[in-house]
Amino acid sequence: MEGGSPDQGSVGSGTKRSSASSGSRPRNRKEFLYRFVDSGMLTAKLEDWFESISNKSEPKKPAFDVPFELIELQKFDYALEGISFQQVIRMPNAVYASTSDAVEATAYLAIEDFLHAGVKGLWEAFWSQDEPMPFSVACLYDENLKFYQAEKAVADGKLGGLCATGILLTNPRHPHGKWDQILELALLRPDIRNFAMDSDRQLPLSVLGEALFYALRVLLSRSLSRLNYSQSSNSVFILLVDSQYGGVVKVEGDVNKLVFDVNNVYECAAEWIIKHSRIAVSSVDRIWNKLGNANWGDIGALQVLFATFHCIMQFAGFPKHSVEDLAADHGPRLQARRAERQLGDARVNGNGLFRFQQRSVSPEIVEVQDDSVKIETEQLMKLEVGSVLWLEDSNWQKGYQINQVLNNSEHPYYIASPVEDPQKRLFLYVGSHPSQLEPAWEDMNLWYQVQRQTKILTIMKQKGLSSKYLPQLSASGRIIHPGQCQRPSSGGNCDHPWCGTPILVTSPVGETVSQLISEARFGMEEAVRCCHDCLSALSTAASAGIRHGDIRPENVVCVRSAVRQPYFVLIGWGRAILEDRDRPAMNLHFSSTYALQEGKLCSASDAESLVYMLYISCGGVLPDLDSVEGALQWRETSWSRRLIQQKLGDASTVLKAFADYVDSLCGTPYPMDYDIWLRRLRRNINEDDHGKEIDTSG
Ligand SMILES: [Zn+2]
């Protein structure tokens, strides 16, 4: 738009660009917001852009990202398990009712009630049981853009002018709401359900344009506000619902980049949306059943609740109880259920090679067949020392004998030897069964450990990454189960509960740092070497754009042999970050500050986690942490008082200097300088006559 012809409406106003670019002054912004009132005019300015992105995106592939990954929603679903939501006012079913005012009025009451039940349930479960909820719900009246309780608006004859329902910060001084205090808006529009039928059908511009209009209006109001938002306030969620279905639109961006030309409001707004915003659109899914009750556990309602959860965080800060905390209660609950139903016996299968056990966790719905409780799926193999396991790839079969069962992670894994080479020792991981399309939250860890890690190690191999500090993919494939395999020739699995279970085999083998620390076998010398070796692994991976995302004592092993100095290998690459959408593991003790705050890694994040690991290995004490808020608080206090540097300084000055360097880099966009630190660390490693063992390539 720079140098383009001005909007027709502004011709003759004499406004120059200079006045527009100085528009970040509040008065201009206020005027801009005051004039930005017509969603139709914004939508018209977006037509060309919308057409171009709709054409550009491949057929089957939607033009926008989704706001939430399925795995996040699954975790959230587990966290909500113990929470009860109740919508009292039923949503009228427009399919069977004629479109009348009475139906529309009830729909507005029902959507208010739905949002209220959602925000209240979330507030009490995650933030505070005792403090009253500081939010309220009301409807937006389009003539003055003020908020009214639906009941009151209907009584006052405003029904025809209601255009949205919002969750707002309660403010007795402004009973009709203020735009900077809007957490979230829901637009009730007919026929949203049409876009649920097939997922590649995109929302039309008429619907999306309106959502973008309201989102930008909220962002502008926030930029003028004196409120202190707890979290980044530059994203907004807009809900699109009809009387049965709904979806979520997320708009994110920095409104300071908007050109506040008050004579050109809609063009400037459209330009900002096109150039400076990120838009994400969820699938449209069912929210209310035919009786008008919300299906709280279903994905449609879950998406709405998760959006609301993020909105509350913007105003109230991190919750007292994290999603992880509440999701973790799922396991014990399930065990209680199993005990109650006496589903816990171990059984031995036909040929006695393997013993398998009911896994302690499994999807919550266990099918009950008439008179007997039948357990068909969900059997986790429990391999014993001495048992032999066969796996196959497309063109080979290999046997592995189990030497040792290890239990220091969430799931058992093994040290095994190839049948044809009993001297060799390898790590062997057993994955979750492929038939679990929507595995339990706990099983996701297993999926990361096996399936995802196989993918990452394969990519490393393909990209030619080689370092002795990185694990090597030795084999991967599917298990060959006992008995006849009757899988169809077209592929897939037979009925055997293990059929198709993926296996990953890696080298080298070593003891984990957590084990060394617990047995007080991790001293100062090990700390410096461990820091060097892990940093070297990170540097090699970073050269291919891969970051680890889950550094902790269980994921670093010390490799010893008769002829070499011991060295450390960074394992557990299942949570690695390959692209922007990947999320790192969340660990209250070892995650970086940025990961806890943003769910992403900055360039120093892995190094920060490494520093926490070294801190405890040098005798530093991690406090009991039970919330993200507490974890962030601990980090802030420890860094600002230089407690971490002091502790590491007791062990080695180079580690202290490294911690200072990491502290200075955290949260900034500057890249890590690996080479300089690898050199410094190397100088501090006792090389003796084993000097050649230290990899000087970095
Ligand atoms: Zn089979």
Automatic annotation (TrEMBL):
InterPro entries named in the record: Kinase-like_dom_sf
What residue spans carry the region label Disordered?
A: 1-26
Q: Where is the composition biased (Low complexity)?
A: 13-25
Q: What is this protein called?
A: Protein kinase domain-containing protein
**Protein's organism:** Prunus persica (Peach)
